[in-house]
Design a protein that fits this description.
Shape: globular
Strand content: 25-35%
Number of helices: 0
Structural class: mainly beta
Number of domains: 1
Distance between the termini: 39 Å
Helix content: under 10%
Radius of gyration: 18 Å
């Protein structure tokens, strides 16, 4: 395995969230690693897959833990983020799947529809390298083994869909011709830069190439335990062999708190700033 590269943006402290020989410090975030330690040859073919668009993942910001954690991923590129496959064409026959439309530009959608989420077969939502075309998050509990990668996509981990999307995005068409798979993204919407209506504060110093988005995953973690968080996205042109995709990983020690910028609440309690009480936190 080759050496890990520092990511384009680092969320939180630069120290590891999983110190050797002791428990993790709740709330500590490790450095963002843009290649997640891949590719490398092994008996598992996916570990050899190359990601050629890591730079579109501008930052990962995990926070909270219990009762709720949020993993915020900031994307920016010269083309809009691909939210999912809206249609699969096999032998000239099209099958359509719902992808949340961009009703305004920019926009935000909670629980976005991300097209076909099948992971096998002709009707899957995968790129030519078998990666999910929709923004996906993979989680591994590494408290007892900081080297554990069992939850990664390359190891057969489960992809989790985002809970909310902000900014600009579009869909794509997947065409299957025998053993050949190709992806054709829709046309770009208008540029939105880093305008993310209703989204979280964009970390300072991130590059802007015209199309910005934030994908956020809300999940329950166990306070005081460490997690390896892997995320992957696809850009909006898909013109490279195997598909244009970026991945990044970060270690995070869950805290006994709500996500950054979110106040604790009681179900049924009214939150401020037009937020709702979700799993004990105002979002």
């Amino acid at each position: 395995m080759g050496p890990a590269k520092p990511g384009p943006g680092s969320a939180g402290a630069s120290t590891s969230a999983v110190p050797d020989g002791g428990p993790c410090a709740p709330g500590v975030v490790g450095p963002v690693i843009t290649d997640c330690g891949y590719p490398y040859p092994s008996v598992k073919p996916l570990t050899s897959v190359t990601f050629n668009e890591d730079e579109v993942l501008r930052a990962i910001v995990p926070s909270g833990g219990s009762p709720l954690a949020s993993i915020r991923v900031f994307y920016n590129d010269e083309h809009a983020l691909t939210l999912g496959v809206r249609s699969v064409v096999v032998g000239g026959t099209s099958t359509d799947y719902p992808v949340s439309p961009l009703l305004t530009d920019p926009a935000s959608v909670r629980y976005p529809q991300t097209g076909t989420n099948l992971l096998t077969g002709n009707q899957s939502g995968l790129d030519p390298s078998a990666r999910p075309m929709w923004p996906s998050l993979f989680v591994t509990d590494i408290t007892d083994d900081p080297t554990d990668r069992s939850g990664d996509w390359q190891q057969g981990g489960t992809p989790w869909n985002p809970n909310v999307i902000f900014g600009s995005w579009k869909a794509a068409v997947r065409t299957v011709d025998g053993s050949t798979v190709s992806i054709t993204p829709d046309a770009d919407p208008a540029k939105n830069d880093w305008n993310l209506p209703g989204g979280d504060t964009v970390p300072s110093g991130l590059k802007n190439e015209g199309f910005g988005a934030e994908a956020r995953w809300d999940l329950v973690l166990v306070a005081g335990r460490s997690y390896r968080i892997q995320v992957m996205v696809h850009d909006g042109d898909q013109n490279k062999v195997g598909g244009d995709s970026g991945e990044a990983c970060v270690d995070f020690c869950a805290d006994a708190a709500c996500p950054e910028g979110s106040d604790p609440c009681v179900p049924g309690e009214r939150c401020t700033r037009e937020r709702s009480c979700f799993n004990g936190c105002c979002l």
